[in-house]
Amino acid sequence: MVVVYTLIMFAGVVVLAASSRDVWHALTTPLPLSTYLAVIVAMMLSTMLHEMGHGAALTAFGGKPRQIGFMLFYLTPAFFCDVSDGWRLNSKWKRVSIALAGIVTQSVLAGTASLLSLAAGTPEIRSGLLVYAVLGYTSGIINLVPFVKLDGYIALMSYLNISHLRDKSLRDARRMISRVLFGHATPYELPPLRRFKAYGVLCMLFPAYLIIAALSLWLDVIAKFGGWGAVIALLIVALVLGRAVAGYINVVKEGWDPQRSKLRIVTVTVLLTAATAVSAAYVQIPATIEAGFVNDASGPGVVFDDADSVPAFRVGQVVEIYGSGLIGGRQIGTLSVENAQAGTRSVPLDAIAPVTIDGARLNAVVIPLKGQEASLLPSSGTARIHLGNENPYQWFSEKYIQPAMAAILGGPTTGQT
Question: Do the strands 355-356 and 31-32 form a parallel or antiparallel pair, or are they unpaired?
Answer without folding.
Answer: parallel
